[in-house]
């Protein structure tokens, strides 16, 4: 199995959205490096377990649970990603939720499976932006967050999140220049191979979410597009 440092492409499935068995099979067998199960609204334990069991039934692709609420937490995933929203105006979304979860689950936690992500949410219209009471940082702010993710918090992942809209490649490029050890994840609005290639030029890993549900044929082509990048 590839380590996270070798990943290039991830599909993110939202447990609150419907996906047919046929489409799920195509996503799992696409050659993507991993599937993240995660979303902002209406993430329930039932929804998470349903996706996990359907993926596990016939596929070996690594499965990640990106934890958005404690109620939907379950064992059985290969990895757990825990977002810390760096540009939230509330400490709660940066530290307190995570602190509470660690206090409660510390005995069950296998640290090699858990990755904290320094999130920077850059689309004001994204549900996650409103939900986490974030502010819109400028380019220098984002670069400073990237610096902090790597040099202050030593986080394994810095996630540039444009969820729902395609972001600025130039900003992603400049952020990449700030990072050496911390991996750069980019997600938001990738709908076709050209966009996937453009963002993969700078990001270590690209994440494709919504287009799975709007145009799966094009979404599937994003995997091949970044293979040799
Ligand atoms: C969402 O970054 C991911 O958390 C992917 O974004 O849904 O816009 O592809 P999209």
Describe this structure in words.
With 229 residues, this protein is of the alpha/beta class. It has one domain: FMN-linked oxidoreductases (TIM Barrel). Helices cover 39% and strands 18% of the residues. An eight-stranded parallel beta barrel has the order 1-2-3-4-5-6-7-8, surrounded by six helices. The longest helix is centred in the middle third of the chain and has 15 residues. It is globular. The model has no long low-confidence stretch (mean pLDDT 95). The structure holds SN-glycerol-1-phosphate (1GP).
Named CATH architecture = Alpha-Beta Barrel
Strand content: 15-25%
Give the names of the bound compounds.
SN-glycerol-1-phosphate
What is the CATH class designation? Alpha Beta
- Overall pLDDT metric: 95
Q: Give the spatial strand order of the biggest sheet.
A: 1-2-3-4-5-6-7-8
How many individual β-strands? 8
Radius of gyration: 16 Å
Give the overall shape, derived from the CA principal axes. globular
- What percentage of residues falls in helices of 4 or more residues? 25-40%
């Amino acid at each position: 199995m590839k380590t996270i440092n070798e990943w290039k492409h991830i599909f993110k499935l939202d447990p609150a959205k419907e996906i047919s068995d046929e489409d799920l099979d195509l996503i799992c067998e696409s050659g993507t490096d991993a599937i993240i199960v995660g979303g902002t609204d209406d993430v329930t334990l039932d929804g998470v377990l349903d996706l996990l069991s359907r993926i596990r039934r016939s596929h070996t692709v690594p499965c990640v649970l990106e934890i958005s609420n404690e109620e939907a937490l379950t064992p059985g995933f290969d990895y757990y990603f825990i977002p810390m929203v760096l540009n939230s105006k509330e400490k709660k979304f940066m530290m307190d939720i995570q602190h509470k979860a660690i206090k409660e689950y510390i005995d069950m936690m296998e640290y090699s499976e858990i990755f904290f992500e320094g999130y920077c949410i850059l689309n004001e219209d994204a549900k996650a932006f409103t939900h986490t009471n974030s502010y819109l940082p400028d380019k220098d702010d984002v670069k400073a967050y990237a610096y902090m993710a790597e040099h202050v918090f030593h986080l394994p992942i810095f996630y540039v999140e444009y969820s729902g809209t395609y972001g600025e490649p130039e900003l992603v490029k400049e952020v990449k220049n700030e990072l050496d050890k911390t991996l750069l994840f980019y997600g938001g609005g990738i709908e076709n191979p050209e966009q996937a290639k453009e963002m993969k030029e700078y990001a270590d890993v690209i994440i494709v979410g919504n287009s799975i549900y709007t145009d799966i044929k094009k979404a599937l082509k994003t995997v091949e597009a970044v293979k040799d990048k």
